[in-house]
Amino acid sequence: MPEHKLEADSIIYNIANRQLLTDIYLSCETGEIVGLLGRNGSGKSTLLRIIFGTQPTANKHIRVNGTAYQAPYKHRNLVAYLPQHSFLPDNLRLHKIIELYFQEPDKRKAIQEHERTKPHLNKFPDELSKGELRYFELLLLLQKDVKFLLLDEPFSGIEPIYTDRILELLEEHLSTKGFIITDHNYSTVVRISDRVVLLTDGACRSINNPEELVEYGYVPASAFS
Ligand SMILES: Nc1ncnc2c1ncn2[C@@H]1O[C@H](COP(=O)(O)OP(=O)(O)OP(=O)(O)O)[C@@H](O)[C@H]1O
């Protein structure tokens, strides 16, 4: 039995007189990686922000273990969100950012003494490579005592070696957290996800076979030939 279950239900979102999200149901359990795919502009980032609670919309039901939350991000221990673009203050060195994020010595230590963070503690975020920065951001979010992480393009622009390092990090935390991941590196998303969902025409459709991604026009037929 999963310990916790996040459900996003009946989400409707209109933008510029068009319904972007028409009727969404998306769920994630702790111990699970759910891959969210969809074409550019299909509404994946919007959906993650709605689930997190920072994107207002007229109609939504976000539940954790059956309890409804209007703004999940305001509640401790529920959900964290990795946005597409870096969310770190660019005028603070990494060691300062860690101190700002965490009071608990054990959490600070876990990040400060991490072998891939240690060499960069005196740097500013813009002095890190894209892969190093994404890795550090994930380390920060993973130390939060949340049940679910929403990751918007964690692999974008990341070399394969960092993709695998990020995956190792997620696996370390899978026993206590669930992940919803969206990224255009679809082969990685398909490889690492327990379930894949395609956001198309405003709704989430379960993908049971990667070739369905061709049928929905998300990947070219040549991808599987
Ligand atoms: N502030 C805004 N004003 C107007 N339109 C917006 C705004 N933010 C997003 N949109 C539109 O909403 C749609 C969905 O955007 P969103 O970023 O959620 O898509 P996405 O699936 O995450 O795209 P991508 O894969 O390119 O990151 C797009 O058509 C986008 O142009």
UniProtKB/TrEMBL annotation:
InterPro entries: AAA+_ATPase (IPR003593), ABC_transporter-like_ATP-bd (IPR003439), ABC_Transporter_VariousFunc (IPR051782), P-loop_NTPase (IPR027417)
Domain ABC transporter per the UniProt entry, residue ranges: 6-225
Signal listed as a keyword: no
Gene Ontology MF terms: ATP binding; ATP hydrolysis activity
Keywords carried by this UniProt record: ATP-binding, Nucleotide-binding, Transport
Keyword field contains Nucleotide-binding: yes
Cited Gene3D superfamilies: P-loop containing nucleotide triphosphate hydrolases
The protein's name: ATP-binding cassette domain-containing protein
Organism listed in the record: Pontibacter burrus
